[in-house]
Fold:
Amino acid sequence: MKKVNINFNSADALTLSPKEDTLYNIRYDGSKPGQKSLVVSLTIPNVSCTVYFGYKASLGTIIDLVTTVVHKAPYTTSDTEIEGVLYDGGISNYQGKVIVEKTARGSVSRLEDRVLVVGEGTHNHAEPVMQIETNDVTASHASTTGRVDENQLYYLQSRGLSRDESQDLLVDAFLTPLGV
Structure:
């Protein structure tokens, strides 16, 4: 599988059309405000695409992200995983859409949005959408928001780390995708 790292800080829109099995590791730090749009078009049969998008939002940072994965060819696979961390005052708005066209029978798609809250006064809004125009597909979506586990913090602190060091370690682990 081909691996591609992308820094999404300088662009507002990105269109990807993988020609082979590809894993995209995309990072965004919220430094350039405005809506970010990511479109993945799967046009070659049997191609697999994994998109991992990680971001952090703190006070005054608004993450406004729209992703669209379009299955055009048959037997394509997509796995979209959005992971964000909200610090004090961070705001996240996410709309994820998967479209499986009539020509994309046998396709498999997964869309997941996970947000870790480590601050106060945060806001998270997620809209996962599936638009399936054919039979014989497998599709799933999920969205979760949660806080850092106090038991994990306690364990790390019992090993000599401060609370802030423990929290930073857990945030880094949360934002590190498997296989990248």
Observations:
- The chain has a mean pLDDT of 92.
- DSSP finds two helices and eleven strands in the chain.
- The first strand starts at residue 2 and ends at 7.
